[in-house]
Amino acid sequence: MADESESNLFADARQAPPRELTRLSLRVRRLIAPNASPFTFNGTCTYIVGEGAVAVVDPGPADPSHLAAILSAVEGERVETVLVTHTHRDHSALANDLRQATGARIVGPPPFQPKGDDAGLDSSHDRAYAPDAVLTDGERFAARTFTIEAVATPGHCGEHLCLALLEERALFSGDHVMAWSTSVVAPPDGSMGAYMASLEKVRCRDETIYWPGHGGPVLEPQRYVRALAVHRRHREAAILAALESGAETVPDLVAKVYVGLDTSLLRAASLSTLAHLEDLRERGLIVAAEGSAFGELHFRRA
């Protein structure tokens, strides 16, 4: 899920890819689920990797028409593995149905674990996700015609994985890095500090193209990821300046930092702002006097 409120960054990259089955490379095909929204662009990208014996990366939302499209796309082939980047419902909810239809194993991050009293903010997670095997950072998954390496990239959510296709120097980047928009980082599961560290982690890798969870490819990925990090630092600076000018609460800060924001994106902007504030507090740059509810938190410069 992406934060379209920040998507004017790299606006020229926001071209909606075709939703029908598309050949992307020697080993990769793509289908796009029919779940377009302000947070998913024109739908979740589902990738079919390999030929004959294949893996499906991020099967998408629990939509019968999308399941039918996947099964049609792999007719005559064997789906051996369903790979999942993270457990948000728009990425993993179809995994169980696809496993039942094909006998494939589900492989990906561990199931989501709610985090204390704030678990309600994590309502986008797929609580029915049940992997047959869990991938850890650096672990490799070898198939007949390709090799996948798991790259732990917490930030957008706590157990987010990117999946490197080693033979093509490509990265299935999930919702960590997308060309059409920046990611929502929503506490308590999302962490801005972890997100920034994960950006640096993938920037130091040698992939030459990213295939994201929504939208078209990320080209020149190292340069693009560097620009994303700069953008987040600019956002952080704007939040600190707003605090200096007297803003104290998340709604106050959003009003000052996200000028002209579409009201449908207010919640996403508020959560990303809170993630920045939590990171700033952990780094000792601000202090907080906590109220009883999300909108009542008060912050000031340390």
List keywords for this structure.
six-stranded mixed beta sheet; 2 domains; 302 residues; alpha+beta; Metallo-beta-lactamase, Chain A; elongated; 27% helix; Arc Repressor Mutant, subunit A; seven-stranded mixed beta sheet; 7 helices
Structure commentary:
The chain has 302 residues and is α+β, with helices and mostly antiparallel strands. The chain has 2 domains: 2-228, Ribonuclease Z/Hydroxyacylglutathione hydrolase-like (Metallo-beta-lactamase, Chain A, 4-Layer Sandwich), CATH 3.60.15.10; 232-301, Arc Repressor Mutant, subunit A, CATH 1.10.10. It contains 7 helices and 17 strands. It has helices at residues 64-73, 89-92, 95-102, 192-203, 221-244, 250-257, 266-282, and strands at 2-3, 22-23, 28-32, 45-49, 53-57, 78-83, 105-108, 133-134, 140-142, 147-152, 161-165, 170-174, 182-183, 209-212, 218-219, 286-289, 298-301. It has a 7-stranded mixed β-sheet with strand order 2-3-4-5-6-7-8, covered by helices on one side. The chain has a 6-stranded mixed β-sheet with strand order 9-10-11-12-14-15, with no helix packed on it. α4 packs antiparallel against α5 and α6 packs across α7. The two termini are 32 Å apart.
